[in-house]
Write a structure and sequence with these properties.
With 87 residues, the chain is mostly helical. It has one domain: 434 Repressor (Amino-terminal Domain), CATH 1.10.260. The protein is globular.
């Protein structure tokens, strides 16, 4: 579960979440948009405050948890090449 999903499930505001995480609202916004990452210490704290629902790994390496997006892109490109050059 990512931080957005957890926040929506808990129905808490950005202000409350940022305060609990020990960061500013603007920094939280950048994290949620993938523009910034938490420090390992803040990621550990966030895992604790979410009861483990959002893990350190999900916070530090969100692209690794991107459930198959890369595979979908490569599958589409493979399909395109097969369609363009039928054998």
């Amino acid at each position: 579960m990512n931080i957005n999903e957890w926040q929506n499930k808990q129905q808490i505001s950005d202000a409350e979440l940022a305060k609990n995480m020990g960061i500013s609202i603007s920094y939280l916004s950048r994290i949620k948009r993938g523009l910034r990452r938490l420090s390992p210490e803040k990621a550990e704290h966030t895992e604790t405050i979410t009861g483990g629902a959002v893990t350190v790994m999900e916070l530090l390496f969100p692209e690794a948890n991107d459930k198959g997006r890369g595979a979908q892109v490569s599958d589409k490109s493979a399909m395109s090449s097969k369609t363009a050059n039928p054998a």
